Amino acid sequence: MNLISDTTFRHITLAQAAADKASSRPDDTALLFDSGVRLTYLEAWQQANTMAAYMQRLGVKAGGTLTFQLPNIPETVPLAIAASLCGLIINPVVPIYRGKELGFILSDAKTEILFIPHQIRGFDYVEMINQLRPSLPCLKHVICCGAEGQLPDDIIRFETLMSETGASATQVVAVDPDDTKVVLYTSGTTGNPKAVRHSHNTLAKALDNGVTAWNLNDQDMMLMPSPVTHVTGYVNGIELPFFTDTRVLLMEAWIVEKAVNLIEQHGATTCVSATPFLRELVDTCRNQDRTLPGFRLFACGGASVPPALIYEAREVLTDCRAVRVYGSTEVPLVTVGFAAENETTQAAETDGRVFNYEVKICDEEGNDLGLNVDGEIWVRGPATMQGYRDADQNDAAFSDDGFFKTGDIGHLLDSEAIVITDRKKDIIIRGGENLSAREIEEVVVQHPLVAEAAAVSAPHQRLGEGVAMFITVCGRERPDLEALNQLCGERQLAKQKWPQWVQVIEEMPKTPSGKIQKAALRDRLQQAGVLLG
Questions:
Q1: Which sign, positive or negative, has the C-alpha torsion 346, 290, 235, 195?
Q2: CA of 506: how far to CAs of 443, 523, 528, in Å?
């Protein structure tokens, strides 16, 4: 099904867009933050120039990689513009990652300059990077945002960077908009994260798809609780107000009561985020008899979306059209939902209307199965990533004619909608965050009592899915959940990936070729009524 309507690109960079806004609307608000900070277009541009000038004096050259592992704080916005000014490849990394994941990413990306927080919820990022730094020869500079107390001599305070004076980097570095602009790492079935490359043009096209489909304009404000280190948060959080006239309200952390108050106080009209956020928003508003008039759209994806939740949202929230959307880091926003007044059923019962992509449903041999038949979803369009950094991964991920093989199973309807029915990829989606089952298994199987390990998704009452672990053991002793999680901590695996449930079984169900049958294990969970929380 070919539903590509617009293949034109903007052919401008974020730095160029920010410069234009700073000139044409200097005193207008670009972004608000739940901390109370208000950032105008001129302030964002001036701060970005100060940062760019400092980085240039450090010797960071165009084409190098800048990584930031920060929450949704004001520093991220001028940082992204500064990277564009300097012609750097920007690499956002989610703050939940610990030494195992971060060390791999920094090494693989050949990061030269890194921005980190000092502490979040008691975790010390400075200590983590000090442990990793000897194994990262490319990492030349580390800047700490929100530093508390003394820092090691080789880590720069963000305030020092912003207080520097000197020649301003007012000239935008010549950049080809088709060059790689951002590298985002996404969990894959092979364990280590995959490096997804987007150009200036492909990422802007992903943004434009939503702007066009949802009619975003200068009357809108986007509430953005999704991390700016995800493709959704980066595009709709940091870049949206510079490429369009829509303002953004960034939340550093999702707290539902705060979100309700922010929507009412600032007149936020839209949100693109994960299922648990919509669930909590609807429940809270119902319990408090609040209807959020003027809040018109919640695009929900990243995890399974129960149809009942879409119906409930439309009953509780006066003007809101809650819709299911589908996409990934590789192919952002393949579907845009059904947001019209008379499309409630399609919004609830499908995973959205395909917009500006070609989609076909294929069997194992790559044959197009047509409508109403389940198969693997293949997509192609102007917002498709440039490819993975690893050429071998590209060979497996793309067809000869350029379709991306999503690994998701579903079917197409004649209404131009996709319905997802299963996942071919061995991924656990926890609160919109993709977790690699294999990566977790590779840690758990290192326990001396564990012979085999299989991580599968289990229903989670708030986050959609969590990590359930089946293991076989070497002898009579059996490790408990605490022992497995202690090992995960020692191996510096992000806590969100630690198993929440474990069961020892005598033998893993396997195919004739010896592959563990995850579907059979998930059936066991369902029969046992396992619900995490």
A1: negative
A2: 20, 16, 17
N-term to C-term CA, the chain: 40
Region of residue 61 (left: phi > 0; alpha: psi -120 to 50; beta: else): beta
The backbone torsions φ and ψ at residue 405, rounded to the nearest 5 degrees and listed phi first, read -90, 105
pLDDT digits (tens, 9 = 90+) for 211-263: 999 999 999 999 999 999 999 999 999 999 999 999 999 999 999 999 999 99
Six-digit token string for 495: 């806590």
Q: The pTM is what?
A: 0.86
Q: Spell 135-160 as b/e; 16+ CB within 10 A means b.
A: ebeebebbbbbbbeeeeeeebbebee
| Torsion angle in degrees (nearest 10) through CA of 305, 374, 326, 190 | 100
| All structural domains of the chain | 14-195 (3.40.50.980), 254-423 (3.40.50.12780), 427-528 (3.30.300.30)
Could you tell me if 42 and 26 are in contact, meaning their C-beta atoms sit under 8 angstroms apart? yes
d(CA 244, CA 136): 38
Query: Of 316, 311, 221, 227, whose CA–CA distance to 271 is shortest?
Result: 221
CB 322, CB 352: distance < 8 Å: no
CB 68 within 8 A of CB 233: no
Rg of the Cα trace of the chain? 23
Query: How would residue 170 be classed by pLDDT, with cut points 50, 70 and 90?
Result: low
